[in-house]
Amino acid sequence: MILQNQLVAVVLLALIVAMVVSFLMTPVVKTFAYKVGAIDVPKDARRMHKVPIPRLGGLAIFIGFMFSILLFANVRGDRQMQGILLGAVIIVVLGVVDDITPLPAMFKFVIQIAAALIPTLHGVLIHVISNPNLVSDNPYWNMGKLSVPITVLWIVAITNSVNLIDGLDGLANGVSAISATTMLVIALMVSEIQVSIVMAALVGACVGFMPYNMNPAKMFMGDTGATFLGYILATMSVQGLFKFYAVISFAVPFLILGLPIFDTAFAFIRRIAHGQSPMHADRGHIHHRLIDMGLSQKQAVATLYVISAILGLSAVVLTTTTELKAMVFFVALCIVAGVAARVAFPRELKEELHEEMAEIREHGHHGESEAPADSAAPEQTSDKTEQPAAAPEQPAAEPEQTSDKNDSRQEGGRK
Hints:
It is built from 16 helices and 4 strands. By secondary structure, it is mainly α. About 40% of the residues are buried.
């Protein structure tokens, strides 16, 4: 009991120190961003802000995180942690350079692979995972020689997934904080001290930057922050989730990081289906769709926070009970969230439904009005062409008028 209380005290201190340092360093980093020209200018429809805003806020998150880690974590005696932190430094340097001067996507991808290889070579590997097939006789899968490529793929994928959801003020920062909090709770449950301290430092660093990043944002974290958060979440999920395969289900890391994973997978499938490159930027991410539905930035971010929290709670429940109970819990939370959304955003939902119904009625009315217009023109023309027989004193003028009217009606039908 005393040991548990000491662990909680150290974790709490690590969180507070990271939060304070991150908060205090953000104005300093903001000044530095202006000096080096790391400014995000709204130059396309994908960006939600209207005025230039400095980025590089991820550097403040990194400083707060590292300060806390060096104080409270056992870095010197942990080779795996040394590999994780070394790779994190490479990711942050890459992000800083990219925030100042945009780099080619392929070059960044290669550097990310190199950064992911460092912790794997230091022993951070997915050796075994639980079998997702619950009726199988083999409860675990041994990765064998595939451990290194699978771990590298996981780290690079999550690194970029968090970066892709960084499209609204406070979104990637808050979702990362929720995911890190979930990992922190699970690590405390299995008494994994090192993972608990690292996750506490990450939560604190995110929370410290949050006042500057919430809508309307005074500063963005940039690629520096988004890729760093994704990298730490990916590597620590290997260290703290896949590692304890005897008690942690295969689904837990995917639930914790479910929002960025789904958004990235959906984006890749959508782009490939449209004949585009998977890396082609577009305005079809989840947060963009919520904005297009009529939600404000704050409402869209709050909605995605709730989704991330539901997934996180389900992951925690899954580690303490059976898969069936966790699934029931997940479904119940989804129902509650749906009801809450209708209560919280009744006006937006009604306006969206009204716009859809009005569009349907407009298309229906347009389709009905075109058919009679096309069929009526020949009948009116026919009536006009019979008039010269009844009035022979004007044989030439009437056919010309008929031709003009007929031409005008046909052109009106085309319009």
